[in-house]
Amino acid sequence: MQILPTIPTIKNPSEQFAGDVWLDVIAPPQSDAQRAFVGTVRFGPHARTAWHSHARGQFLHVTEGTAYFGDRDGNLIEVRAGQTLYTPPNEDHFHAAGDCFMQHIAVVENADNPAESTIWKEHVADEDLPGAR
User: Fold this and answer.
1) Which CATH number belongs to the domain containing residue 122 in this structure?
2) What is the pLDDT along the chain (133 residues), one digit of tens a residue?
3) Separation of alpha carbons 59 and 88, rounded Å
4) Are 104 and 69 in contact (CB under 8 A)?
5) DSSP class of residue 125?
6) How many CB atoms lie within 10 A of CB 20?
7) Which residues make Cβ contacts (< 8 Å) with residue 95, sequence separation at least 6?
8) Nearby residues of 27 by Cβ (< 8 Å), 6 or more positions away
9) 16 in a domain, yes or no?
10) 38-76: buried (b, 16+ CB within 10 Å) or exposed (e) per residue?
11) Is residue 133 part of a domain?
């Protein structure tokens, strides 16, 4: 048993995020046999991810604000603090904040090759965002 060292907050890259988005790693895998990765992700107002998918799916538990999650079929789901969203494996989606800060805890199970756990794609078009409809 051990207390893990604190990992400094990471500002997420503009290739994968629009606006200001930060990641705090809570629980990275500690061995090759472990697959779970847990992090807290904080979005500034109107920030969002690019389209992406996860090889083994993802759980997102909103802890602050209101989150918007969209898929390629045009569905847009509003998730409030205290609620959890599940995204199935290989489903293209995005995460977005509205007018205020939004924070969620992300739980991802790594693929056999951790580099293939999340597949990043193009940025989300403005018309796919909350308030654009």
Assistant:
1) 2.60.120.10
2) 999 999 999 999 999 999 999 999 999 989 888 899 999 999 999 999 999 999 999 999 999 999 999 999 999 999 999 999 999 999 999 999 999 999 999 999 999 888 899 999 999 988 777 765 4
3) 9
4) no
5) P
6) 16
7) 41, 43, 48, 49, 60, 67, 68, 69, 104
8) 4, 36, 37, 38, 39
9) yes
10) bbbbbbeebbbbbbbbbbbebbbbbebbbbbbbbeeeeb
11) no
Interatomic CA distance for residues 49 and 15, integer angstroms: 9
Domain range for 81 is 10-128
Beta bridge partners of 18: 48
Please tell me the total count of domains within the chain.
1
CB 83 within 8 A of CB 62: yes
**Is residue 108 a part of any domain in this protein?**
yes
Q: CB burial class (10 A; 0-12, 13-18, 19+) of residue 6?
A: exposed
Residue 2 lies in a domain: no
DSSP notation for 16-42: TEES-EEEEEEE--SSTT--EEEEEEE
With beta carbons less than 8 A apart as the criterion, state whether 7 and 24 touch.
Answer: yes
**CA dist 125 to 90, 107, 128, 130, Å?**
20, 26, 6, 11
